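Protocol step 4 of 6.
Sequence for Arginine repressor (Terriglobus roseus) entered exactly as in the expression construct, tag removed. Do not edit the line below.
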Amino acid sequence: MKQQRHTAIRDLLVTTTVLSQDELRKKLAKRGFTVTQATLSRDIHELHVYKGPNGYALPGNMEEDDDSPGIAETLRNYGLEVKQAQNLLVVITTTGSAQPVAAALDYEDWPEMMGTIAGDDTVLVICADAKQAAVLKSRMEGLIG
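Step 5 output, structure tokens:
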């Protein structure tokens, strides 16, 4: 099912303009693929989909590989700063990089993290409590460098 879904995502991104994850989710649903936001974020990460000025797009090289950038590389390249507000973390990224950072964080499935919300240059990371947020903040700061 995952391979068919990935094929459908590739097809949609090549044949139509997709401006948001919700729009992609709805287009997939019309093709018979019901997915959650978390699953769609993982698919986007695995397919190396990026969000540009004209919406979501596939990378130029369509070869399948397992060498997708990990969280360390993603945070090192796009993360600027991590701030804590009780059980919440705010990850400041370079402009336009919040979506790939949030997808990479979601893909890690760290136990301290309950979920993410991404804007353009900011990712909100929700943790269960302040202690877990502090642990995660320290880990992410170490990866940002």
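Step 6, annotate. The mean pLDDT is 88.
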